[in-house]
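Risk register update: the risk of archive-format incompatibility is retired. Evidence:
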Amino acid sequence: MWAEHGVTEPLLRDFLGLLEAIQEELNSRWDGQDRFGRHENSA
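Archived output:
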């Protein structure tokens, strides 16, 4: 086990929170593009 575990865990939690926020931002942008008529897989 790492000696820095007490520091690493909160940093990892912050990092995962940032990734989640980025994913939500990208999803909202992607949904916005759908409204402007993307023509991929429009079956």
